[in-house]
Amino acid sequence: MAKTAIYIASTGKNVGKTSLSIGLIGYLREQGYKVAFMKPMGQRYKTIDGKKISEDVLLISQTFNLDFDLSLMSPFIVERGITKKFITGELESPLPEIKKAFLELWKDSDVVVIEGTGHTGVGSIFGLPNSRIARELNARVLFIVEGGIGSTIDSFNLNRALFEREGVKISGVFVNKVKEAKLDSTVKILRNYFKKEKIRFCGAFPYRPILSMPSIQLLKDEIGAEFLRGAEFAERKMGEVIIGLNEAHIFIEELTNHQDDVFIVTSGDRSDILLALLALLERDRLNPTGILLTGNRPPSSILDFFQDKDLPILHVEENIFKISSLILNMSVKIDPFEKEKIKTLIEMFEEYADKKRIHAILRAGTPEVKEPFMEKVKRFIKSLPFFR
Question: pLDDT of 126-156, one tens digit each?
């Protein structure tokens, strides 16, 4: 069996790299491959046992119970101030550490799935755009772009040029978030286009609203809120956000046009709105996904009325205007506990990906990456007793 490194690249952030990684890894594991995962350059991270680990690495590792060292899967984090240190010469290139981590994962796996960061040029400040890392790791590149035709092709070619400048060929392309009604026609046109370009068209995934809905837990983490009650509903999807700023009767009129799957944001001192919401709940005229209260905490006498409701209620100290802006601009990421989303991604890959083309990439394999001679020398010197 040929070993393969697959680099997941895209035209920008939130296009679907992590979604494709989940679908691909799920499929490969079902086929019996031992799969490792790597995020060479992470941006969002959590500190685990004193080490900064990419959130995407934590997601993939927990989802598939991968038995690899997290620090190998996440060798470099772009934290605040690190670019300045690199420019001023306080920090050396992270490439040797990335290569070293990759080689450790490589020797213990059949396939290493490497997830890029942002668009192709991200990382250029370190001399390591996605295209360069893919070249250094001899990886086969799978590209994912957002649905459409003209804009899809334009954005793909803009990013493709950076890979070609590094001498890296795109092995396959996926299109994500295609409108369901246009899926067949979009696939037909794009398949013909990429055939002319001699690039494998590996499939198109339809837009699924569930994948774009943040969970209440994600909201809590993003804005630093706390549960006042209903923490057991953290996995629930938020749905449409309705902000309560008007007088209670005007706000209630607005709510009657929605009823279900709405997430309500209002100030904690708006007892009039809270009591009006309670009246709607008692009459089964409203089924919200949750309530976020901003600013002042509501009186416990008001909260007690919601005691028997299957409803998460959260509180954050920031004012409603700042919180509303944060919510509207929030990036929707996948959390490990969102089993429904993860299951959907794996099922979508199974249904819409062209597996024959994936297996053609796997059969081609990947040339082995050699550790640079000077890095071997440095590692040997550091291993000597008087350097320990």
Answer: 999 999 999 999 999 999 999 889 989 999 9
Contact predicate 110/3, CB 8 Å: yes
- In DSSP terms, 206 is beta-bridged to 178
CATH class, 4-209+335-387 region = alpha beta
Closest by CA to 57, choosing from 34, 75, 39, is 39
Nearest to 254 by CA among 265, 263, 244: 244
The total number of residues shown for the chain amounts to 388
Bridge partners (DSSP) of residue 209 are: none
Residues facing residue 114 across a β-bridge: 7, 38
Q: What is the C-alpha to C-alpha distance for residues 276 and 274, in angstroms, rounded to an integer?
A: 5
Share of the chain above pLDDT 70, in %: 95
Superfamily of domain 214-328: HprK N-terminal domain-like (3.40.1390.20)
Contacts of 69 (CB under 8 A, 6+ apart): 104
Helix (H) or strand (E) holding 48: strand 45-48
For CATH 3.40.1390.20, the residue range(s) in the chain are 214-328
Q: Record the pTM.
A: 0.86
Give, as one character, the DSSP assignment of residue 7.
E
Helix ranges restricted to H, the chain: 17-30, 55-64, 70-73, 82-87, 95-107, 130-136, 150-165, 183-196, 209-212, 216-223, 248-255, 271-282, 300-303, 320-328, 339-352, 355-364, 373-383
Handedness of CA 234, 235, 241, 242 (dihedral sign): negative
The pLDDT tens digits of the residues spanning 95-125 come to 999 999 999 999 999 999 999 998 888 999 9
pLDDT band at 46, cuts 50/70/90?
Answer: very high
